[in-house]
Amino acid sequence: MTQPGTLALAGGRLIDGLGGDPVAGATVLIENGRVSAAGRNVAVPKGVPTRDVSGMTVLPGFIDCHVHGTYRARDMKQHLLNPPTYNVLRSIPILAETLACGVTTARDMGGADAGFRQAIEEGVIAGPRLLIAIVMISQTGGHGDAWLPAGLRVPKRTWLPSPVADGVDEVRRLVRHVLMAGADFVKICATGGITSVTDSWDEAQFSVDEIRTAVAEAAMRRKKVAVHAEGIDGIRTALEAGIHSLEHGWFIDERAIDDMVKQGTWWVPTMALVPLSVEHRKQNAAWNAAQLAREDAKDAEIFAQMQDRIPLYKEAVKRGVKVAFGTDQSHRLMVGENLAEMRFLVEWLGMSPMEAIVCATSRAAECIERPDVGALAPGRRGDVVVVDGDPLANIRVLEERARIKLVVKDGNVARDALH
Asked: I need a surface site. Which of 29, 89, 250, 360 has the fewest CB within 10 A?
């Protein structure tokens, strides 16, 4: 187990993640991996290593509520040639990059099993603190089903159990299985998706009873259910089933907003994914060609409609829908570029830069039910990001890796670019 660290960061401009005014000339003191003090006039005990961060912004480590941190080749031929252990080992730099960009806690939405979580906890590999779903549960022919028209299933990650379940009894069995295997929460698909071959993003999947069964089974283990849902029909099914968090949810409507506010449902909108995919296709022809599921057409269709829905997204935030930061970062896109999502929280959801930061820190901690992270306040874990620049003046400074000068997790320095 990695030993918690002790460290002081002195002289920076503190944004504590709780939404209060920034504090100039602040000191953050971390002792045995926990924040013991943060603010002005903090007495640093003799012998505590102290870093001068004057002129920089000091923030809590960010929480990405929607990642896929494990590797598989995007090209299907190469995927078939790669042994499972190769994919596991290629996952190591993905997790390290996620931490290096400032994400110190992440909810893995399918791909990482308990071994990844344990390896990070023990310091065997570098990465954000993980909460895992293990698989994303899918109906036959659904978003998580790896069936191909050739008549066979080609699993994306062969170290995982099959994610396919049909009917209440099979859903119950699979939920029980992933919880037995160490899942921190349950992930289930209520619509199709961009990367799946046998469906479209706007098709509803699973019945209310099937998803409600997952919710009930998870609740018995004091766990929650996150639901992949892009189109409105699946969104409505998921909300009726009483889910904890709606992932993507790009095609919410007024009724869905009403239900989410009433039920207290979290929304993890992953707004950057599609716009950045559209842009990346223009720049990387080989990446664009390595697809099986008409991803380019789906991306273009969704992107065009998302732009028309920006006023509705802003209305959802104004009306009190609870939003938590998440990216859908995976091997295919956004590795180490997670904080690009911040710009879309500001521009597409109408948040202020401070609200976007809170969304990615203390609000995200609420969503994943981890009160020990997400803020630079006494008792919280010593997760810190030091940035050269003012994200309140320009949220995009967080996207520039050269400006991420220091990343600290549990009081231990994970990235050090201070000079």
From this structure: 89
Per-residue H/E/C for the chain: CCCCCCEEEEEEEECCCCCCCCEEEEEEEEECCEEEEEECCCCCCCCCCEEECCCCEEEECEEEEEECCCCCCCCHHHHHHCCHHHHHHHHHHHHHHHHHCCEEEEEECCCCCHHHHHHHHCCCCCCCEEEECCCEEECCCCCCCCEECCCEECCCCCCCCCCECCHHHHHHHHHHHHHHCCCCCEEEECECCCCCCCCCCCCECCCHHHHHHHHHHHHHCCCCEEEEECCHHHHHHHHHCCCCEEEECCCCCHHHHHHHHHHCCEEECCCCHHHHHHHHHHHCHHHHHCCCCCHHHHHHHHHHHHHHCHHHHHHHHHCCCEECCCCCEECCECCCCHHHHHHHHHHCCCCCHHHHHHHCCHHHHHHCCCCCCCCCCCCCECCEEEECCCCCCCHHHHHCHHHEEEEEECCEEEEECCC
pTM value?
A: 0.97
pLDDT in tens, 69-97: 999 999 999 999 999 999 999 999 999 99
Which residue is it, tokens 């570098």? Answer: 126
pLDDT computed for residue 407 by the predictor: 98
Convert the pLDDT of each residue in 146-158 to its tens digit: 999 999 999 999 9
Answer yes or no: are the C-beta atoms of 112 and 132 closer than 8 Å. Answer: yes
- Can you tell me the distance from the alpha carbon of 206 to that of 170, in angstroms, rounded to the nearest whole number? 12
> What single letter denotes the amino acid at residue 256?
A
